[in-house]
Amino acid sequence: MAEMALGYGSEFQLLRYLGHHRFYLDEEIKKVIGKGDITWMDYPINDKRDSCDGEWTEIECFKKRPDYNHIKNEWGKFWPQRGNAHNWDGIFIQNKIWYFVEAKAHLEEAHSKCTAKDSNSIGTITRAFEKTCGNKQLAEKWQQSNCYQLANRLAFIYFCTLIGIKAKLLYISFVNGYRCNPTKNVIQASDWENKWKEEYKTLELNDELKSDIYHVTIDCEKGCDTPNF
Questions:
Q1: 173: which residues sit within 8 A by CB, 6+ positions away?
Q2: Where are the alpha helices (DSSP H) in the chain?
Q3: pLDDT band at residue 130 using 50, 70 and 90 as cut-offs
Q4: 104/175 Cα distance (integer angstroms)
Q5: pTM of the entire predicted model
Q6: Secondary structure tally for the chain: helices H, strands E
Q7: What are the residues facing 216 on neighbouring strands?
Q8: For residues 40 and 90, is the Cβ–Cβ distance under 8 A?
Q9: Per-residue pLDDT tens for 75-110?
Q10: CA distances in angstroms from 23 to 30, 43, 85, 172, 220, listed in the order given
Q11: Is the separation of the CB atoms in 98 and 165 below 8 Å?
């Protein structure tokens, strides 16, 4: 896990809005997912990082649930236990639904390839994708595409439904979140919209899979000065 950048980047911008503009962030999220109190999970401690904080990984957020041992056992069957494919930028709960947050500050962050080398792991991933999308050939395409992160996040959301947990994926895409580097900085929300449309097309997402994904775009030059209570 890389160290957090200071003043730019997706991790910095998300923590900035959680710490300095929480009301604004939550209100922007509610415009997309609907009304209801949002409860963010605190981040786990990680003394190996300079910040002393880490990210939730895979199913760790469920550890305090009484059925965690069952979840862990099922996860071991569903996904390879080598490496760590699912690092969450944030997690919150609203109306008993778990929202797993991915934050992005530049377009290249949306691209990723599967790095698994072990044939057993690749097979397990492809089978998980097939269960998620319902098509073996499409599952193989997911595994080989440069939209692998979105694909494995969707597989995780599908896993949650299998174990009886209501879950959704929420992308927070930042505009002007990388001003220190104009070549990476995204200055128009439409650039993000086009990027996600491109990923949806590559993965051939149907309406059911799309319904598991929400998108919120935050302009890092904006906030709410006075909450309207």
A1: 103, 104, 186, 189, 192, 195, 196, 215, 216, 217, 218
A2: 10-20, 22-33, 68-78, 119-133, 136-144, 148-162, 189-203, 207-210
A3: very high
A4: 9
A5: 0.91
A6: 8, 7
A7: 172
A8: yes
A9: 999 999 876 678 899 999 999 999 999 999 888 888
A10: 11, 19, 31, 15, 14
A11: yes
Distance CA 91, CA 202 (A): 26
- DSSP assignment, residue 79? S
Q: CA geometry: angle at 143 spanning 121 and 117, to 5°?
A: 40
Neighbouring-strand partners of residue 214: 170
Indicate the SS3 state at residue 174.
strand
- The pLDDT score that the predictor gives to residue 72 is 96
SS3 (DSSP) at 187: coil
| Phi, psi dihedral angles at 84 (to 5 degrees) | -150, 90
> Is the pLDDT at 39 greater than 80, yes or no?
yes
The dihedral through the CA atoms of 3, 8, 10, 16 has a sign that is positive
Rounded CA-CA distance 163/173 in Å is 29
Structure tokens at 160: 């949650």
Euclidean distance between CA atoms 207 and 223, whole angstroms: 32
Tell me, what amino acid is at 67? D
147 backbone dihedrals φ, ψ, rounded to 5°: -110, 30
Q: Do 134 and 155 form a contact (C-beta atoms < 8 A)?
A: no
Which residue bears the tokens 């002393």? 52
| C-alpha to C-alpha distance for 55 and 221, rounded to whole angstroms | 25
